[in-house]
Amino acid sequence: MNSENVTIYDIASDAGVSIATVSRVLRGESNVSEATRKKVQDVIDRRNYRPSSIARGMTTKTTHSLGIILPKLLNPHYAMIFTGAQEEARKSGYTMSLFPWSSLDTREYDPAAMLAERRLDGLIVCVEYLPPDHEEQVLSALRDLRQYMPVVLIGCVPPAYDFPAVANNNAAMMQEIVRYLTSLGHEKIAFIGGVEEDQDPLRRDVGYENGLRDARLPYIASYRVYCRGTAEDGGDALRKMLASLKEEYWPTAVIALNDLVAMGCMTAAREAGISVPEQLSVIGCDNLFCAPYLVPPLSSINTHQQRTGARAVQLLISGENKKETADWELVERASCARVKS
Amino acid sequence: MNSENVTIYDIASDAGVSIATVSRVLRGESNVSEATRKKVQDVIDRRNYRPSSIARGMTTKTTHSLGIILPKLLNPHYAMIFTGAQEEARKSGYTMSLFPWSSLDTREYDPAAMLAERRLDGLIVCVEYLPPDHEEQVLSALRDLRQYMPVVLIGCVPPAYDFPAVANNNAAMMQEIVRYLTSLGHEKIAFIGGVEEDQDPLRRDVGYENGLRDARLPYIASYRVYCRGTAEDGGDALRKMLASLKEEYWPTAVIALNDLVAMGCMTAAREAGISVPEQLSVIGCDNLFCAPYLVPPLSSINTHQQRTGARAVQLLISGENKKETADWELVERASCARVKS
DNA sequence: GTTTATAATGTAAGCGCTATCATGAGCGGC
DNA sequence: GCCGCTCATGATAGCGCTTACATTATAAAC
To answer: Which of B16, B19, B23, B309 meets the CB 3.0–4.6 Å disulfide criterion with B84?
Structure first.
């Protein structure tokens, strides 16, 4: 840019000291006399000098920058994780860069190429459900990356993964939701979302099944509808389920994979003339910012995403190889009601 | 990390060539014989070598990383801008890092310190409304930064700013909204949002006033309520306005600064027993993903945030010093209705 | 006043690349 | 068979820092 870049040599010669001394005041070392410190600092200020973090990184082998891989930032759930991570990173002087999930897709890139060349000081990876065929590939990409930088996982992390992680206990969350709904008298409880083929023990639908079992309710295949995690898909899924069922068999409650799916369900229900929660209780997961403003306000699970993101950064920076579970709590709003007897 | 970092020297000696030759095949230069290229590439693959982008940056003076400063990622509006920018950046091999707005706040940091030291190849700054006393300070921080890297502005950019920018024409948007509402027969149109003291010609409320003038409607001070841009504030603002007015003077339409504020208004209206849109039309701005799922679905202005973010990156990379205007269009949904005569 | 520890500063060797310039091999043309 | 080319490759000087290590100045101890 316009101001010719001033280097440590310029400062040194201006101040009449060696570059080592400048370096010392830059890093706030103690063994510099107060007089020279001031003299050097004055020159630094006057010339508006900023040491190049990249030259610094050359010798310190550190970039003070972290990366995070998210499925999609447009889902506020991930935006919150990112925000929590970014804020925590900044506290320690780290920068946070976003990489799309496709960075791990070897069909598109050599993941390590883009990421490893950056010499990040660490990487956070938000794991959603992975189809089994894809999973092995992602896992190997992660292991590859790990040769270059510490990696911490967030989200839906199989216990078998040997990575530090802040995992959410999807099963427990869903189980609690079922318990909550049955406590309201529901017996016909549907679950919408997820992928059919999956066997992952941490999946949300496993919690659903466990919850049914706890309540001694039968698992009814028609109440289990699969869809991807968008509002549109959620609406479609509910419509399809209702269409396939005689009205007397319609569920009285729907558990949505997440709040987006729940939003789609509520809209689909309204359009079908089904009133929420009188005829159909709906509950989501993630407690997005808009949940309280839906009609009726959507019950959900607060998963403390910002805290989760921040915690992941702490693990990354501290280097602890721990697996933690993110805490969560059910947030009751008006979208779930006692079933009419 | 565990794999001792292999450098260009290792590759060179393994392949029995000089580091210059390795560098040539790394950068795909043409003047390398096919035989040595293959020989070198094989070693690179075998040793799983990734050139350090930071060492490279040392001599090329380029980091292939861009930064973006946003007020807050939690507002999906900004998440979309970020996403658009990030995707476009990646297409050109750039990385995108997030910096919070506070990075420009000299009361907290020396903005240039954190940002300039990173030697970013460019910076995007999303400008919201700035209180006049703060504005001068931010502007000077931006000018300071500009000595180190190109800067492109997005959003609410005063024409006087000498920065390349993708500005949105808030005034025109609001003016169109007023036109739309008057075309539905509304005469009592309120505007909620913004900051009272501001004089900025690009402010959304200026468009509101112009729109009223176009429609030969009086500007009524009680219909002009200020609040920050959150849903909660929006609800409070509407409540306060209604409380201050006799029912016969209640507005028949409310223009909200953005969709968050609109959400708050709709909820406040519902709680007050006012039906939207029969008794009160509501319209927002930004067309957030949840707008279609509100009750009633919220009319809004689509500001094509992703496109805007992408365009800003293009300006940054190409170095054009252009000021562009983001395009937009009104999205009609059910939250606005013809006023009952 | 000489010796020694101690604090303050300087010297110089990297860090892992890129880029410039030099060198050498191969080759057609006279 | 020598000249001048071109093309492939090597040698090397940075880039702007940090960091041993060396050196000098200062003070404390004898």
So the answer is: B309
Report residues of chain A scoring pLDDT below 50: 1-2
- Is the pLDDT confidence value at B2 over 50? no
The whole-chain average pLDDT of chain A stands at 90
Give B 154-213 residues with CB within 8 A of chain A.
Answer: none
Whether B65 contacts B118, CB under 8 Å: yes
Per-residue pLDDT reduced to its tens digit, B210-248: 999 999 999 999 999 999 889 999 999 999 999 999 999
- Which residues in A lie closer than 8 A to residue B292 (C-beta atoms)? 231, 267
User: Among all strands, which nt has the closest C1' to A5 (CA)?
Assistant: D16
Contact B50 A116 (CB under 8 A): yes
Q: What distance in Å separates residue B6's CA from the closest CA in chain A?
A: 11
Nearest Cβ partner for B74 among A83, A146, A263: A83
Q: Check A74 against B79: CB less than 8 A apart.
A: yes
User: Which chain A residues touch B112 with a CB distance below 8 Å?
Assistant: 48, 50
How many other β-carbons are positioned within 10 Å of the β-carbon of residue B183? 10
What is the structure's pLDDT at B47?
Answer: 92
Q: Which of residues 266-285 of A touch B (CB under 8 A)?
A: 266-267, 270
pLDDT at B159 over 70: yes
| Length of chain A measured in residues | 341
- Per-residue pLDDT, B341: 65
Paired strand residues for B329: B302
Percent of chain B with pLDDT over 70: 94
The structure's pTM equals 0.93
| Cα–Cα distance for residue pair B48/A113, rounded to 1 Å | 10
Report pLDDT digits (tens) over A174-214.
999 999 999 999 999 999 988 776 555 557 778 898 999 99
- The answer to whether strand D lies under 7 Å from the CB of residue B63 is no
Burial, A331: exposed, middle or buried (Cβ in 10 Å; 0-12, 13-18, 19+)? middle
A80 touches A72 (CB < 8 A)? no
Chain A residue with minimum CA distance to B90: A99
Q: What's CA B208's distance to the chain center, in Å?
A: 22
Instruction: Give me the half-sphere count of Cα atoms (radius 13 Å) on the Cβ side of residue B315.
Output: 25
Q: Which of A3, A7, A48, A50 to mutate to test the interface with B (most CBs of B within 10 A)?
A: A50
User: Does B239 contact chain A (CB < 8 Å)?
Assistant: no
Is B31 near strand D, with its CB below 7 A from some atom of it? yes
What is the rounded distance in angstroms from the CA atom of residue B73 to the CA atom of residue B81?
A: 9
Q: How confident is the model at residue B111 (pLDDT cuts 50, 70, 90)?
A: low
Instruction: Determine, for residues B50 and A117 on separate chains, whether the beta-carbon distance falls below 8 Å.
Output: yes
Q: Is B132 on the interface with A (CB under 8 A)?
A: no
Q: Measure CA B98 to chain center.
A: 12
CA B124 to chain CA centroid, Å, is: 9
User: What 3-state DSSP class applies to B191?
Assistant: strand
Q: Whole-angstrom Cα distance, residue B43 to residue B36? A: 11
